[in-house]
Write a structure and sequence with these properties.
Elements lengths: L2 H26 E6 L2 E6 L5 E3 L2 H10 L5 E2 L17 E2 L8 H7 L3 E4 L7 H4 L5 E3 L7 H15 L3 H22 L5 E7 L2 E5 L7 H4 L18 E3 L1 H7 L3 E6 H4 L6 H6 L8 H4 L3 E3 L2 H5 L5 H15 L2
Parallel strand pairs: 3-6, 4-5, 6-7, 8-11, 11-12
Antiparallel strand pairs: 1-2, 8-9, 9-10
Length: about 300
């Protein structure tokens, strides 16, 4: 083999290898579409930040390490799953943008309460909004699981998680069949409210199919549609699912049970039949769109309906 031919062959091989590596690098770039636009993610993210506990819940369901988390309101059901050395990057509503910039992360997730942070964060770090609409609760969670599976090259795991969620919803729907009407009550600083089909627990009505005992509910941001004990007795639901907002925000655990130990409420069908289910307060109020939280809540509903 001549030296000229040999050199040419080596050069061609090096060029081909370089092009192959370049093509692989380009292939790793993914354009992620989300509620606030499109974000390009290069490769599989190694350093991950999130401003939302539901997103942390989703990431943890995949076994993905999270380097930065909200500094407050960590749900107790996720206790022990947050790394001891995780960065605290601000509250659910007020991100620490300086800390986020200094972290030099590969991706930053916002959702729900922190969605407004996207406008600033997108110029600092590749950012993705994983907000979920309450009117498309389960499908929204499944969509986010699929998106995360795509981002982290864990598509098979995403399919497995979504299949398990579908099965759990089907189990809850079967348990709810023929059980009568339901109300989701929220207790808040000694006050009563009702959550309806557009609320943070809308899946009770929309996904598992329990008819609301109320024809119309005007959901409030925190306390639901305000009601009285007299009104509850008049509506007389067959089942009551309770969200203790005080416990959910870490202010007063057990406040809901104390409030509902009321002479009028105890005359309702739900109370007389023992058809009262206390939902995990943080899963239902803080991280309501989190995969593991919703699985937990569905288990509580199934257990209650089958008791």
């Amino acid at each position: 083999m001549s030296m000229l031919f040999r050199s040419t062959a080596i050069a061609a091989a090096v060029f081909a290898g370089t092009m192959s590596l370049a093509s692989a690098s380009i292939a790793q770039d993914k354009v992620i579409t989300h509620p606030q636009g499109e974000t390009t993610i290069s490769g599989v993210p190694a350093k991950v930040l999130t401003q939302d506990w539901a997103v942390f819940d989703d990431l943890n369901a995949f076994g993905i390490d999270v380097s930065g988390v909200p500094a407050s309101n960590a749900p107790s059901y996720l206790s022990g799953k947050v790394a001891a050395d995780a960065l605290q990057i601000g509250s659910l509503f007020e991100p620490d943008f300086e800390g986020i910039a200094a972290a030099e992360a590969d991706v930053y997730f916002v959702a729900g309460r922190s969605a407004a942070a996207y406008a600033t964060a997108k110029d600092i770090v590749p950012s993705v909004d994983l907000s979920v609409s309450n009117t498309e609760f389960i499908s929204g969670i499944k969509h986010n699981i699929t998106v995360l599976g795509d981002i982290f090259d864990l598509e098979a795991k995403a399919e497995e998680l979504n299949a398990a969620l579908d099965a759990k919803v089907a189990e809850a729907s079967a348990a709810a069949e023929g059980k009568g009407s339901a109300l989701v009550l929220v207790t808040n600083a000694g006050k009563l409210g009702v959550y309806g089909p557009d609320s943070r627990v809308a899946w009770v009505y929309n996904e598992i199919g329990m008819p609301s005992a109320l024809d119309s509910v005007k959901d409030g941001d925190h306390g639901g549609d305000a009601v009285s004990f007299e009104f509850l007795l008049e509506v007389n639901p067959d089942w009551v699912f309770v969200v203790d907002r005080d416990a959910g925000t870490g202010e007063n655990a057990g406040a809901a049970a104390a409030l509902l130990d009321n002479e009028l409420f105890n005359q309702t069908n739900a109370a007389k039949e023992g058809h009262i289910v206390y939902l995990d307060p943080q899963a239902s109020y803080i991280s309501m769109h989190g995969y593991q939280g919703v699985m937990l809540l569905l288990d509580q509903v199934i257990a209650g309906l089958n008791s």
